[in-house]
Amino acid sequence: MAIMTRNFNSVDMSDPKAAALAVKRAALEMGADVVGIGNIERWANAPLQMDPKQIMPECKSIIGMVFRVERGSLRGVEEGTFFSNYSAMGYGGLTYIYMPMTVINLSKFIEDQGYEAIPMGHQSDWRAIDTYGKLKPNYSRPVRPGQACPDIMVHLRIAAYLCGLGEIGFSKMFLSPQFGPRCRVGIVLTDVELEPDPIYDGPQLCNRCMACIKACPGQCFDPENTVKVNLAGHEVEWAKIDENKCNIAFRGAEHSGKEQADPYMPESDLVPGEWSPFYHKPKNLYNTGQAVCGSRGCTRACMISLESRGVLQNNFKQKFRRRPVWSVDWEKPYSPEKSGEEEKFYVD
């Protein structure tokens, strides 16, 4: 019996419109929930360290894909009983396992037709800039004059916007008309010319309701201090975020102002916030798994607001929040034995 292999050059990619249709169909079949395309000209004013042309100088098209964060993966955090599922399935597993498989396979589909493609997902660990966009000191240096320092970080939320997939909300979260903030983004850079989609101009998603700001447990947003950028001729604005505060609150901690004998995390004064039921930060899952706050403001509050307005395409039979918001009173002692909440299980 002869060996078997993939079919090469089976799809005519010479017509940008037909090629775009073939790529979109393939992306959906391979696991993306939404797919759109932006031409490279939309990145004309990108900062050097975020410019996709620094990675692929001959790049003509960028394919953006939305991967939904399943509403159900937020259920356990909402109820306060099952935190690992969002961190594993809605965050780490989706970001580091599922999404890479799709962008890799889509890149293979394009390369089978004789064009180069670069699969990209959440690849920020090697980036040369910090969370504020500044070059990290003594990290890397350009290999040629005029080039960026390795590694480039293409801004995925901006890429999704430039591929026509939705809006960037006031919280800086990417909002799609299908899922609102329940999105992860993957992209593919390619040198094949694909017909681009228009920048999103559908029903307004973010209406500045400020639900994200009010519900953020770390109060990480400064709504009076905003960031404004011009993306392909469109003015986009979001609230400035204190990344350092978010990094602490995100993992369920807050500063106590005094040294702790047994801190929540290695930083000596950290204690669990009222949005964390854990005595210490749980271990990471799939290279992350620290989302103890469960995106209380930027995802859950935003999603609830969008769903109440009826603007999302992926709607549900029941509302998401069905019980009062919980909080943990860490000043109150807790003992399973004394409270009668400890259960004994017997196995025959």
Secondary structural class: alpha+beta
SSE topology string = HEEHHEHEEEHEEHEEHH
Largest sheet strand order: 1-2-6-3
- Percentage of β-strand residues: 15-25%
Mean pLDDT: 94
Q: Provide the gyration radius in Å.
A: 22 Å
Number of domains: 1
Total helical segments = 8
- The shape, in one word, is globular
Low-confidence stretches: none
> Helical amount among residues, as a percent range?
10-25%
* Secondary structure tally: strands: 10
- Quote the distance from N terminus to C terminus: 53 Å
Name the assembly state. Answer: single chain
- Describe the biggest sheet? 4 strands, antiparallel
What report would you give on this structure?
It is a single chain. Helix content is 24%, strand content 16%. The protein is an alpha+beta fold and 348 residues long. The chain has one domain. The longest helix is centred in the first third of the chain and has 29 residues, at 84-112. The mean pLDDT is 94.
